[in-house]
Design goal:
Helix content: under 10%
CATH class: Mainly Beta
Radius of gyration: 12 Å
Distance between the termini: 28 Å
CATH superfamily: Jelly Rolls
CATH topology: Jelly Rolls
Largest sheet: 4 strands, antiparallel
Order of helices and strands: EEEEEEEE
Shape: globular
Strand order of the largest sheet: 1-8-3-6
Strand content: over 45%
Structural class: mainly beta
Number of domains: 1
CATH architecture: Sandwich
């Protein structure tokens, strides 16, 4: 996921981890991320990211998957 000048909605019904790979990202609500920094976002928590040149890796749980 590459975040640009416009906010990217990252709200998800499940928990997720966001890892900054490049640039700087600002999370709303939350901390600013620089390369190598990561943050845990609880399930259902509203979250947006902005940051020109920011590259975020997003790991999340696939809810509703067949068991």
């Amino acid at each position: 996921m590459a975040a640009g000048a416009q906010a990217v909605c990252l709200t998800d019904p499940g928990p997720q981890l966001l890892l900054c790979l490049a640039g700087e990202a600002r999370l709303t609500p939350g901390p600013d991320l620089r390369p190598g920094a990561a943050v845990f976002v609880p399930a259902g928590c509203a979250c947006e990211a902005t940051g020109v040149g920011a590259v975020l890796y997003r790991a999340r749980v696939p809810l509703g998957a067949a068991s």
